[in-house]
Amino acid sequence: MQNKEVLIEFKNVKKSYGIGANITYALNGVDLKIYKGEFVAIMGASGSGKSTSMNIIGCLDKPTSGEYLFDGVNVENLNLNQMAILRRNYIGFVFQGFNLLGRTSALENVELPLIYRKVPKEQRNKLAIEALKKVGLESVIKNTPAELSGGQQQRVAIARAIVTDPLLLLADEPTGNLDSIKSVEVMELLKKLNEELNITIIMVTHEEEMAAYASRVIYFRDGNIEDSLKKGFK
């Protein structure tokens, strides 16, 4: 961790579903701080609250009560359009299933977030190539996903997530569809991006071996944070 500036903060965050006797809490009063430059892994059983937390952090959902601050901004005060702008400009997403467009090249896949931001074509092309170089894929920029291995596809997805220079990278089970060798390659890449570019990374994983790459591991249980441990990769 490079500094003590708070990027993500939950203040007594609750997320409930249903009403009256049928109410259930996915999150039940969570307090959390994640600092700029951290690499945090989030773990927990199904239904523990980790996915709900990620949805709120990624501005895909809002708390029922409590406060969520993103870089000091209270997300509760944002409308849907403002939340979409925050997602588009400040958060990069990496998914288990890669979510690449099958008939387009690696370069065109990485350019996609820049198209949404209306970046001119020449600049878009340059930024996408730079992002692919950062993940070691400058030699396959014309290849479609079908012509890439699973590990390469995930690297393209990571390049797409960082091409906008986001404040935060959210990775949801990024090694879930990869074998052990490719998983290590992806985790080493994420660790490198965190250390060299100071990108804040929050990753959901169910694998202790992958969580070990993070500087801190947060364990969720029954809608609460059960533990928060500084771990670090050995």
UniProtKB/TrEMBL annotation:
Keyword field contains ATP-binding: yes
Keyword line: ATP-binding, Nucleotide-binding, Transport
Residues passing through the membrane, by range: none
UniProt-listed Pfam families: ABC_tran
Keyword Transport: yes
Molecular function (Gene Ontology), one example: ATP hydrolysis activity
SUPFAM superfamilies hit by this protein: P-loop containing nucleoside triphosphate hydrolases
SMART domains, alphabetized: AAA
Entry-linked CDD domains: ABC_MJ0796_LolCDE_FtsE
Gene Ontology cellular-component terms listed: membrane protein complex
Domain ABC transporter: 8-234
Superkingdom of source: Bacteria
Similarity comment: Belongs to the ABC transporter superfamily. Macrolide exporter (TC 3.A.1.122) family.
Protein name, entry field: ABC transporter ATP-binding protein
